[in-house]
Design brief:
alpha+beta, ADP-ribosylation fold, 3-stranded antiparallel sheet, 3 helices, 34% strand
Length: 113
């Protein structure tokens, strides 16, 4: 299964330099890295990144995260993937731009479902 992280370009570039992503903002406050399933990613972008440009969609191999990945109730009682520990670059499947359309909505790749 693939899980996703919506992230600002500058934060991701720093993570690539470090060799892992340790979290930022709400991740650090909550003590885990917030991830989304493909189905959840669009709503996450809409709620928390509305109109924000310079974003990336990072696809992560959930199985490679092992026991550090836990699915826990969150928004609307839905189970969300939470990573308790750093996100290693070796778990990353792809990093793609998440552009805005003319109406300011994020345009997701068609294969993210």
């Amino acid at each position: 299964m693939t899980v996703y992280k919506v992230i600002a370009v500058d934060l991701w570039k720093a993570a690539e330099d470090d060799g892992f992503y340790a979290g930022a903002g709400i991740d650090l406050e909550d003590g885990f890295i917030h991830l989304s399933t493909g189905r959840q990613a669009r709503r996450t972008a809409q709620l928390y990144f509305k109109g924000q440009g310079d974003l990336l969609l990072v696809a992560v191999d959930a199985a490679s995260l092992g026991d550090a990945l836990k699915y826990e109730p969150s928004r609307d009682g839905d189970l969300f993937p939470h990573l308790y520990g750093p996100l290693p670059m070796a778990a990353v499947l792809s990093v793609r731009p998440l552009p805005l359309d003319a109406d300011g909505r994020h345009v997701f790749p068609e294969d993210v479902t």
